[in-house]
Amino acid sequence: MALLRAEEETKVREWFAELEHPVELLVAIGPEETPLAGAGDVDFGAEMVRVCAGLAELGERLTCRVEDKPDGFPRFPAVSIRPDGRDAGVRYDGLPWGYELGSLVGAIVEAGRAESSLRPDSLATLAELDRNLALDVFVTPT
Amino acid sequence: MLLAYKLSYASERVTATAIEANEFPQLAQEMQVWAVPRIVVDGEPRWDGAVPEPEFLRRVLAT
Question: I need a surface site. Which of A88, A141, B3, B55 has the fewest CB within 10 A?
């Protein structure tokens, strides 16, 4: 099954062609938690590799690498979205299905920017941050 | 989700993880995920739903 509809793929190719930095998707596979009933026989790890490898085919500056149980990944499967191959602390745990595939694409586009797309006042506030901050956002595929 | 990612790319002090609630039901239960997106800051559930960028930043920085 195709990852994206034809018109979506065209748009994503355009966005990825504008990446100013190389972006690496580091896919981490390993032991998986039992998902909620209804997930069927989905091989989440294999599907994650398929999704990320498929996205990497849409942009010359986007690459995909797969590792088995790498350090720093508490849950599997997961993908770390890395500007210039650097761990910037951005991760997606679980399979980015449906609407959430857009979040992964958005993360790639942001990672590839030379300048943040945040508002200047947000950047000024962030520059004054004097402690570490861990944000977790729980999502579902719909 | 994208706002959290943008914050992380813009600041080395911020990490941002999306967690697919259906695939990690135990953690989702611990974080009392009944609606999405559920925002958790430093391990503490804070609020549900999308908000504009200034409000998102104000909320995540509130102690």
Answer: B55
Overall average pLDDT of the A59-79 stretch: 97
> Is position A132 within any domain?
no
Cα separation of the two ends of chain A: 18
Range of the domain at A79: 6-127
Residues linked to residue A90 through DSSP beta bridges, in sequence order = B16
pLDDT in tens, A123-141: 999 999 999 999 999 998 7
Contact list, B32 vs chain A (CB under 8 Å): none
Q: What is the pLDDT of residue A101?
A: 93
Decide: A105 and A55 in contact? Cβ < 8 Å. Answer: yes
For chain B, the structural domain boundaries read 2-61
Taking CA–CA distances from B47, the nearest residue in chain A reads A137
In degrees, to the nearest 5, what angle opens at C-alpha A109 toward C-alphas A106 and A113? Answer: 140
Distance from A5 to chain B by nearest Cα, in Å? 22
Chain B residues inside the 8 Å CB shell of A35:
22-25
Give CA angle at A54 (A80, A47), nearest 5°.
70
What pTM was estimated for this model as a whole? 0.94
Asked if the structure places residue A1 within a domain, the reply is no
Count of domains for chain A: 1
Class of B2-61 in CATH? alpha beta
ipTM of the modeled complex: 0.97
The answer to whether position A65 is within a domain reads yes
Determine the pLDDT at residue A41.
73
The number of angstroms, rounded, from the C-alpha of B30 to the middle of its chain's C-alpha atoms is 14
